[in-house]
UniProtKB/TrEMBL annotation:
This is Gfo/Idh/MocA family oxidoreductase. It comes from Nguyenibacter vanlangensis. Residues 136-279 form the Gal80p-like C-terminal domain. InterPro entries: Gal80p-like_C (IPR055080), Gfo/Idh/MocA-like_OxRdtase_N (IPR000683), Gfo/Idh/MocA_oxidrdct_glycsds (IPR050463), NAD(P)-bd_dom_sf (IPR036291). It comes from the Bacteria.
Length: 367
């Protein structure tokens, strides 16, 4: 494709509320040389018209079917709930559109595999929103490891707070969605999945694992109303295993927010030093990360500043800046035939890790 700007239609855009409004719109506008937002489609024409008017888009589509049928739309951005990813992505691909789909790609491995296979068969580019992989801190950290900054990596440990899933939800609608294990939008699939995408970008894939998934809070309270909602998804996720490199890995996610704003600690232990990555909570894809290191005989960790070149001239705010970096890679891939953005095939590999965690959690051994 040689278009000077790619026209993109967004499925699922609610001003002031949705992830598309918070991240995709500012990300695309930061890339105005590469992208033009053609319009939006929501569950109703009225909703799409409100979104288009408030955000300043040229068109409100009657529905998603009209959006994917628009001959002037090159890319469909799928930013709706996980349960609708499959149907919208499939319709867009069958219409010959390239697709940017939020993570998770599908509600489970089977849906992800089918979508990825269809995109390959139709010859369209499918990009998945695992944008932690392209975050400046992650890319800089990856280069440090490649350069042998800490020598051979011996092991890695990550402990984080999931952000949600802590017993209190802001509203009933989204709370019921996130607390239902069948929704596909859980602590395991969202913050753990995003962060594992970043971790394996730096240290390589996981070769084998064991896991524990526990639902310690079986009910959550809706803030402001006191209503109680059932919880069927895990609020404790523990994963241990070995990377392909041979380095042991340990990950523990806890539901809820940290008390002190320190909700992510990722340590990498090497033969010549140690690295610590810190963040306010466990959504590595949308929080600012800091990197500290100590090598040799050093007793104190020193902060490492990410070189400005890793920002790529894009917004430093990680919420939409990292989405912009993913879109920038997508534009480059479409123009040059490269594959630098996380693809649907990459999403399938991550879905397989999630599925392996779920399966491993069902096999316990009594001492």
């Amino acid at each position: 494709m040689t278009a000077s700007r790619f026209r993109i239609g967004i499925a699922g855009l609610e001003p002031g509320r949705s992830w598309a409004a918070r991240a995709h719109v500012p990300a695309l506008r930061a890339l105005s040389d590469s992208f033009e937002i053609a319009g939006a489609a929501n569950t109703s024409l009225e909703s799409a018209q409100r979104a288009a008017a408030e955000i300043g888009l040229p068109k409100a589509y009657t529905n998603v079917a009209e959006l994917v049928a628009d001959a002037e739309v090159d890319i469909v951005a799928v930013t709706v709930k996980v349960s609708h990813h499959f149907e919208i992505a499939k319709a867009a691909i069958e219409a010959g559109k390239h697709v940017y789909c939020e993570w998770p790609l599908g509600n489970g491995l089977a849906e992800a595999e089918e979508i990825a296979a269809l995109a390959k068969a139709k010859g369209v580019l499918g990009v998945v929103g695992t944008q932690a992989r392209v975050a400046p801190e992650i890319q800089y950290l990856k280069q440090l490891i490649v350069d042998g900054f800490v020598g051979e990596v011996l092991s890695t440990t990550l402990v984080a707070r999931g952000g949600g899933w802590g017993g209190i939800v802001p509203d009933k609608k989204n709370g019921a969605y996130l607390l239902d294990n069948a929704s596909g939008a859980t602590m395991l699939t969202i913050p753990v999945g995003h962060t594992l995408a970043g971790l394996t970008e730096v240290l390589g894939p996981i070769a084998q694992l064991s896991s524990v998934l526990a639902t310690r809070r079986t009910a959550a309270v809706v803030a402001g109303t006191g209503e109680t909602l059932p919880v069927t998804t895990a609020d404790q996720v523990l994963v241990s295993g070995v990377l392909v490199s041979g380095a042991p890995i340990s990950v523990h996610y806890v539901g809820g927010m940290p008390r002190d704003g320190a909700g992510l600690l990722w340590e990498i232990n090497g033969t010549q030093g140690d690295i610590r990555v810190k963040g306010p909570f466990g959504h590595a894809q949308l929080v600012p990360l800091t990197i500290e290191a100590a090598r040799g005989d050093e007793k104190a960790f020193q902060r490492l500043e990410v070189p400005a070149s890793y920002l790529g001239g894009l917004p430093s705010d990680p919420a939409h800046g990292n989405v912009a970096r993913n879109y920038a890679r997508m534009a480059r891939d479409l123009r040059d035939g490269t594959r630098t953005a996380p693809t649907f095939d990459d999403a399938v590999l991550l879905h397989r890790v999630i599925a392996a965690i779920e399966t491993a959690a069902t096999h316990s051994i009594e001492p």
